[in-house]
């Protein structure tokens, strides 16, 4: 997997995305705002969990990229 930061949604296919697993969900995608429109982006990764805090811990440990609301990770962003 690549190490550079993704600059556009399509770049995510080159990264290990940390996936929030919903029961009986057969597919993995993130919905991102591209311009003014929500856009579905199919993602993949080596790790999945059904707990958002677990995903945050993995991201902080450098295991991959998460898709979470800013308010949910405000403290981590403020700490750098």
Describe the fold and architecture:
With 80 residues, the chain is of the alpha+beta class. It has a single domain (9-78), classed as Periplasmic binding protein-like II (D-Maltodextrin-Binding Protein, domain 2). The protein has 2 helices and 4 strands, in the order ββββαα. A hairpin with a 2-residue loop joins β2 and β3 (37-42). The longest helix is centred in the last third of the chain and has 9 residues, at 52-60. Pfam families: LysR_substrate.
Which quaternary structure do these chains form? single chain
CATH class: Alpha Beta
> In what order do the strands lie side by side in the largest sheet?
1-4
Terminus-to-terminus distance = 23 Å
CATH topology: D-Maltodextrin-Binding Protein, domain 2
Query: Overall mean pLDDT score?
Result: 87
Fourth-tier CATH superfamily name: Periplasmic binding protein-like II
Count, helices: 2
Compute the number of strand runs.
4
Structural class: alpha+beta
Low-confidence stretches: none
Q: Give the percentage of residues in beta strands.
A: 15-25%
Biggest sheet record = 2 strands, parallel
N to C succession of SSEs: EEEEHH
Query: Based on the structure given, which CATH architecture is correct?
Result: 3-Layer(aba) Sandwich
Kindly list the characteristics that best describe this protein.
80 residues; alpha+beta; two-stranded parallel ribbon; two-stranded antiparallel ribbon; 2 helices
Q: Can you give me a brief rundown of this structure?
A:
With 80 residues, the protein is an alpha+beta fold. It has helices at 52-60, 74-78, and strands at 19-20, 29-34, 37-42, 48-49.
């Amino acid at each position: 997997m690549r190490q550079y930061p993704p600059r556009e949604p399509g770049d995510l296919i080159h990264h290990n995305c940390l996936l929030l697993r919903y029961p009986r969900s057969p597919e993995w995608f993130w919905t991102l705002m591209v311009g003014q429109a929500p856009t579905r982006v199919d993602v993949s990764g080596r790790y999945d969990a059904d707990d958002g805090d677990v995903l945050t811990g993995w991201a902080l440990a450098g295991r991959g990229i998460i898709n979470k609301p800013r308010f949910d990770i405000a403290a981590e962003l403020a700490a750098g």
